[in-house]
Amino acid sequence: MHLHNNLSKNILAWYDNNQRTLPWRVSKKSTKKLYYRLLSEFMLQQTQVKTVIPYFKAFLLNFPTLKSLSLSSEKKVLKLWEGLGYYRRARNLLSTTKILVNKNNSKLSKNLIDIKKLPGIGDYTANALLAFIHDQPTIALDGNVKRVFSRVLNKNEKKIDFKKLIEINRKNLFQIKRNSDFVEALMEFGALVCKPKEPECPSCDIKNMCKYFKSDKKFKQTKTSKTKVKNYNIFCYIDKMRSKIALTKKHNLGFLNKFYLPPVKEVNGHNKIKNWNYHSNFKISISNKKLNINLYYKFSLKIPSNHQWFSLKINNEFIPSFTKKIFKKISKIN
Ligand code: SF4
Known about the structure:
The longest helix has 16 residues, at 88-103. Strands 1, 2, 3, 4, 5 and 6 form a 6-stranded mixed beta sheet that branches. α1 packs across α12 (179-192), α2 packs across α3 and α9 (143-153) crosses α12. The protein is globular and about 70 Å long. The protein is an alpha+beta fold. The chain contains 14 helices and 6 strands. β1 and β2 (244-248) form a beta hairpin. The structure holds iron/sulfur cluster. Iron/sulfur cluster binds at residues 148, 151-152, 193-194, 199-201, 204, 206-207, 210, 212-213.
């Protein structure tokens, strides 16, 4: 489990020459550091950099400071988050900014356990923030970082005790005393060079210290198990004259809990439903889940209880992208 003495030096040297310019990478002394890092870390959970950048910029236009975000309504934050998915992150971000501003004097604790008590902050994000904000010698273990270590050791990730690995190699890993940069460099290196598929081994700056590159017997990565597809029927009550659809927050699609959807029912297979018109079938992947949807509709002037009418065209209210997809399909009915 010993890493090469010069691993961190070489990865940092690579980073100094190859890092991307990203809007949340501000100077270490910047007063914006905490806000920018917090916002970007929440947005980057399960989401790619290129998707996050326009949302990050839009948030800064609307909320230039941590304090201004903390004073916002949930409705406004969700509306701006619309399309980025995993909406629980938006709610947790808002709660975290409120706690930091109102209880912590807009400062982040230097204690890992305290940081992990903030809403929506797990082990990875807490360690990333400790490094970015306080330059502490810690490593944020995301998928990119685990892959780099796993390849350098030529060992399956499942067989590595990463915490132990960091402890054993602590002295070498943090020898340069640029802890914040090193966390960033490792993630960047995993994203751009030691990529999940087709790593750039021939031109890699650490290939001489990489057992995966040098070995004739390369380890096999465990295949991720396939996500089970679930079947759902979705029922749309439509007021055709006014181009409206009935939505409810009382549905059983847990991961879109508290958001407006048409009524949804999980089913075993596809059977004809009495008194409903069948519209179409579509498949969608959302929040790590795979859904097989059968869409039904009926025209109705009466609204069921616990439902509200929404326009199929423009709404000021936050509507999840999933619901908007249904709007698009239903709007085409003649
Ligand atoms: S040589 Fe290849 S596998 Fe090894 S660290 Fe570099 S890119 Fe990754």
